[in-house]
Description:
Blueprint: H1 2-13, H2 34-37, H3 50-76, H4 80-107, H5 114-120, H6 129-135, H7 140-168, H8 172-197
Helix pairs in contact: 1-7, 1-8, 3-4, 3-5, 3-7, 7-8
Keywords: Signal
Pfam family, one: DUF305
InterPro entries: DUF305_CopM-like, Ferritin-like
Amino acid sequence: xxxxxxxxxxxxxxxxxxxxxxxxxQSAHGGHDAASTAPPAPAASARFNDADVMxxxxxxxxxxxxxxxxxxxxxxxxxxxxxxxxGVIDTTQREELAMLKSWLKLWGKPEGGGANLHAAHGGxxxxxxxxxxxxxxxSGAEFDLTFLNLMAGHQGAAVEMALTEKKEGSNPETxxxxxxxxxxxxxQIAQMLKVISEQ
Length: 199
């Protein structure tokens, strides 16, 4: 599993050079990371298409699972780097979740259905409630490695969804958000791969 997820994450990084997110909110190049410096996204305009709605709904499901895994890591991770990454992901994704829910409400679209959309577009995601519950049983270095692998794969899936939205979406705010997702998640994946390599 470790090698499989690393390969998925590396493939997600190909083509775009996201910055690594390091502890303390500083980027690998000395500045702040993309998540902490990006201005708040404006309310989405009323112009949207089916791709925008599908992306928002899938991301709602995706973000909720990522928050659950991050909360678990904040409680159980032993490596400080893992805790720092979990904290960044938890904070960022809670803000994004509230934003996406407000957009879907504006468009008159339901928040739910994201899991079913995942199944209809390539199968079930790597992360689900069962996987998170199984992860709760692990501890120490085994937990850290499991968390980093799962989250790297999970964020790689977000990059894939964001790239699809950039190609097929029409709502400018949603497409701008997809650009930020692709950049920040690639940076997080790079940092997680670095921590994994040091295990």
